[in-house]
């Protein structure tokens, strides 16, 4: 019996996937539920398990874009499992190279078409800023074709020695989708960014005193993300417009806080979601952040875990960023950017002191969030981070940390 394996649907909105890598070769014997391929969707990388045991015949190449429901391989379920490993593959007989026939020299004929570009090629060359006259056309009479334009590379100037190698690789479907969404956010939202600074001294003091006890009891570190997440949840309750989205001519507001956490995965930027963060404690946030980060790093994150989200937190500080303007994650209306912590001189009660300072940024959609709300939201986050015991822990640190 020949079983046709079709691409399963990774999610409701996904209609196409890309074969990122075949984990088996054509003719291999595979076991049922064995991972045979990795497929990229525009949201995640997923493993494709074999639906039955048998000999596999591949019907798609790596890099191919295939529709959901399309056949990607056949499995011969009647084939017997080879003893001692896979059955040996037939060796291909190498044919002796045939001598190349010598052709008579071709006299190049120049016409009006030589060096001119086709309409499609003109458009591509204009986007790249390349003159058609600088390209050797491969079309009839030397005309510059669309393929010539696609493969054309802008001049990098006159070489002066040294290595000047280049490489070209196809972007994954996930990275291409991220690129589309970032451009969409810039083009379709009235995005503005407001900034503030946070004195991290109180949080440093709490972590210094309780982090060892916290980790010993809960198995996770007491990091900055729990403080920021709970500060954001508090601010979203105070300014619900920031926890809203535009849908056509209507504004949808949420009474829950699904916080997206931007993380860097092996395939590109991913934003797994912490559901109902308003119900999570410090321990709950840290455990969920660790779980999602590990799954994203190992390529095990699912589409459902990255679907939704009402607000995003992005921590560029882990890479050393001092300041940035984060881009909104549509259809959300706001994103908070965390940055690195640097000891800076600040005025405290009329005196200059050195304090650990972090710059924070809130990018927001000005179509539904006014300046008063955006600034108020960021100030509320700042207040909670600078007074965590009173505003985030209800003046009971041990109870808040579940110690």
Task: Tell me what the structure shows.
It comes from Hyunsoonleella rubra. Belongs to the 2-oxoacid dehydrogenase family. Keywords: Acyltransferase, Lipoyl, Transferase, Tricarboxylic acid cycle. A hairpin with a 4-residue loop joins strand 4 and strand 5. About 3% of the residues have low confidence. The strands form four sheets. Strands 9, 12, 13, 14, 15, 16, 17 and 18 form an eight-stranded mixed beta sheet that branches. The protein has a four-stranded antiparallel beta sheet with strand order 1-8-6-3, with no helix packed on it. It has 403 residues and is an alpha+beta fold. It has nine helices and 18 strands. Helix content is 26%, strand content 25%.
Strand fraction band?
A: 25-35%
- Output mean pLDDT: 83
Helix proportion range:
25-40%
| Rg, Cα atoms, Å | 28 Å
Order of helices and strands: EEEEEEEEHHHEHHEEEEEHEEEEHHH
Task: Specify the biggest β-sheet.
Answer: 8 strands, mixed
Estimated structural class = alpha+beta
Number of helical elements? 9
Distance between the termini: 60 Å
- Using the alpha-carbon principal axes, give the shape: globular
């Amino acid at each position: 019996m020949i079983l046709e394996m079709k691409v399963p649907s990774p999610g409701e909105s996904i209609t196409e996937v890309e074969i990122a890598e075949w984990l088996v070769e054509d003719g291999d014997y595979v076991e049922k539920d064995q991972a045979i391929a990795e497929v990229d969707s525009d949201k995640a990388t997923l493993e494709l398990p074999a639906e039955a045991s048998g000999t596999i015949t591949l019907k798609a190449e790596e890099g191919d874009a295939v529709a959901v429901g399309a056949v990607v391989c056949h499995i011969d379920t009647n084939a017997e499992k080879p003893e001692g490993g896979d059955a040996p593959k037939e060796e291909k007989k190498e044919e002796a190279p045939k001598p190349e026939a010598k052709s008579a020299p071709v006299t190049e004929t120049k016409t009006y078409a030589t060096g001119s570009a086709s309409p499609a090629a003109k458009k591509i060359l204009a986007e790249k800023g390349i003159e058609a006259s600088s390209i050797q056309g491969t079309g009839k009479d030397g005309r510059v074709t669309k393929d010539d334009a696609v493969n054309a590379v802008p001049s990098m100037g006159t070489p002066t020695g040294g290595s000047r190698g280049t490489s070209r690789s196809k972007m994954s479907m996930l990275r291409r989708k991220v690129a589309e969404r970032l451009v969409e956010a810039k083009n379709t939202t009235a995005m503005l960014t407001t900034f503030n600074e946070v004195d991290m001294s109180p949080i440093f003091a709490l972590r210094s005193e309780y982090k060892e006890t916290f980790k010993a009891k809960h198995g996770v570190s007491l990091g900055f993300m729990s403080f920021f997440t709970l500060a954001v949840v508090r601010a979203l309750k105070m300014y619900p417009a920031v926890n809203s989205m535009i849908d056509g001519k209507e504004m949808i507001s949420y009474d829950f806080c699904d916080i997206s956490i931007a993380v860097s995965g092996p395939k590109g930027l991913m934003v797994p979601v912490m559901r109902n963060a308003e119900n999570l404690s410090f321990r709950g946030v840290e455990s969920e952040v660790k779980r999602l980060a590990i799954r994203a790093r190992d390529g095990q994150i699912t589409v459902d875990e990255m679907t939704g989200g009402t607000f995003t937190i992005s921590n560029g500080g882990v890479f050393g960023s001092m300041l940035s303007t984060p881009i909104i994650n549509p259809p959300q209306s706001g994103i908070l950017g965390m940055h690195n912590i640097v000891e800076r001189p600040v005025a405290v009660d009329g005196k200059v002191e050195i304090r650990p300072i972090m710059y924070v940024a809130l990018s927001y959609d000005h179509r539904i969030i006014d300046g008063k709300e955006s600034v108020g939201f960021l100030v509320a986050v700042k207040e909670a981070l600078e007074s965590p015991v009173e505003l985030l822990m209800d003046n009971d640190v041990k109870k808040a940390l579940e110690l």
